[in-house]
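Ticket #4471: structure export looks truncated?
Reporter: QA, pipeline team
Priority: medium

Steps to reproduce: submit the single chain below to the structure queue and open the exported record.
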Amino acid sequence: MAHDTAAMPGPINIVGAGIVGLSVAWALIRRGRPVRIFDAQAPGMGASFGNSGSLSSGSVVPLATPGAAMSGLKMLLDSDAPLVVRRRYLLRALPWLRQFVRVSDEASVRQVADSLLEILAPTLPSWQRVLEEIGATDLLHHTGQLHLYPSRLALAKDDFAWRLRDDYGVRSEHLDRDALLARQPGIGEAYPLGVFLPQAAAISDPHGLCVRLAQSLRAAGAEFVQAPVQALQPDGALQAQGRSWPAASCVLAAGAWSMRLLEPLGVRVPLETQRGYHVQRRSLEVAPGQVLRGPVVSADSKVFIVPMREGVRTGGTVEFAGLAAPEAPRRFALLRSNFARVFPQAPALPADDGESTWMGHRPCLPDTLPVLGPLPGYPNVWAAFGHGHLGLTMSAVTGEWLAQALCESAPPALARFRADRPTLGARLR
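Actual output as written to the record:
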């Protein structure tokens, strides 16, 4: 899909100043294309603010896998489960959940895994290049990622996922209790087994990364408009601040809010917010004299415990409750108890200023893949949303692919992420 940039003068509008929108903007401005970035909030203040910081280049396993989809559905109404839906939201979430189950068969899973490999394999070199360009290599840490298991039975339940990773060339090392403690001292006795992913990396300040990207974009001439977008127009223009902003094309990177802008165009994509929570301790110490060395994942609770520049962040869980419902204090309590289970010797912190909490909206699609590229019937309206739990991981590659497609020619892999792919179940006009 080649684009003659001379035939499409003018800037490109980007809706969303999270890590995906900023990455698309950076890849475009590097090619000499002027960009305008619209968001009601300052850069990086949405889901990008509170993510785990992991660059999980080996996450080729979709959320829906054989057996995992049905076991996940059984959790939905258990308020203490890693995956929960608020009762009032159940009917609204059912279409998403039905499609989630439909794509959990092994054939669909491997089809999705093929696509995940395409976008994840270039993750680390893509981010290394961007970080060098904006002077932020100090934020990148090649830590690996440690997954903890409470028993051999629990590890066996994840056998399909680990075999799938192995099939796609993701390196892993199985660890006994002694090897676990050698990698990360302080892990509680509840976890005698683990698996280490040596190729994973992490960003120690996701919001700081967004701030630095925004600063580099401004220095390169990008225009930021801090205002909500009221409507998209088929020709690439959009409505904001009571006026029209014409453009050659528009890239929609508004995360979980993207569907509100697409529905008036007759495009219905099964996008849901999987609300995520985190609790951040203002200390890196996880046991007396021991700091957290890299991301640790408790496989039974699906909780990430990660070192940040300003402390240890415990994040995760999935909550279906929509964009407007208030946060649930119970989810914070669950994260605290999970941290205590993994690191029972962690020192107590001051009650008045020992931690901070956050809740945000992950934009998730049933087949785990984002929607990327021009929308069917709207060649000037481009999608860059639905990255789910892997927004930071996928964003540098997303930006590069879309900039290539808009300015030069589309990389072949981009076709795997179109809105009309069979595994998504979208309704298009």
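Status: closed, not a bug. The export was complete when the record was re-opened. Leaving a note from the reviewer for reference: The radius of gyration is 21 Å.
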